Amino acid sequence: HMSGDETMISAFREGQDIHARTAAEVYGVPLDQVTHEMRSRSKAVNFGIVYGISDFTLAKNISVSRKEAREFIDRYFERYPGVKKYMDEAVKTGKEKGYVETLMGRRRYLPELSSASFNVRAFGERCAMNSPIQGTAADIIKIAMIRVHDRLIREHFRSRLILQVHDELLIETAEEEKEKVIALLEEEMQKAADLKVELAVGTACGQDWYEAH
């Protein structure tokens, strides 16, 4: 949503495995010919790219040469130009304004971007790229959390929201309310933000958190 990259958006809309789709794009093979190793390497890039991952770090993470890692990153940006544009514009905006924002308007100030130290500036650039995305994810789960909490009380459920863990909400649920609570939870989490791609929500039940996982 934030990069507007059409290839990535289409992968999510079609319900594809984004890491496998990335591997297919970068390696230039059909989706059904993507190997486990290809997918693993692409996953490392998908998660690392918005942190401004370097060829050195990527090479170490996926056990390839630095030259191979650089080629992988370059091919990634060729296939996902919207991602590269987003990253460049995020850094530019951070330098011009002194801060970046989440989709909901929450700011992170970045004095690091004007530091005389190369390492500190590089850290600031990574924050400029990543903070709007990670921050928006945090905003979305907080919106969902508030809405779920309020509905449980307003609709007189015995069940209660007791914990948020990253992108998860944990509800202690009365057995007879389970199915209604699952429907409520999925509805409010999916509606927490209006994005170009649908927010996918999965639910699981258990006698404790470990069992639910």
Key traits:
single chain; 213 residues; mainly alpha; two-stranded antiparallel ribbon; 9 helices; 4 strands; 8% strand
Residue windows where pLDDT falls under 50 for at least 5 positions: none
Beta-strand share of residues: 5-15%
What's the helix-strand series? HHHHHHEEHEEHH
- Average pLDDT reading: 93
Helix content: 55-70%
- Can you count the helices? 9
Computed over alpha carbons, the radius of gyration is 20 Å
Largest sheet: 2 strands, antiparallel
Strand order of the largest sheet: 1-2
Structural class: mainly alpha
Instruction: Tell me the distance between the termini.
Output: 28 Å
In short:
With 213 residues, the protein is mainly alpha-helical. The protein has 9 helices and 4 strands.
Structure notes:
The chain is mainly α and 213 residues long. Helix content is 58%, strand content 8%. A two-stranded antiparallel ribbon has the order 1-2. Strand 1 and strand 2 (107-109) form a beta hairpin. Helix 4 (55-62) crosses helix 5.
What secondary-structure arrangement, pairings included, does this model have?
Blueprint: H1 6-13, H2 18-27, H3 36-48, H4 55-62, H5 66-79, H6 81-97, E1 99-101, E2 107-109, H7 118-154, E3 160-165, E4 168-172, H8 178-190, H9 209-212
Antiparallel strand pairs: 1-2, 3-4
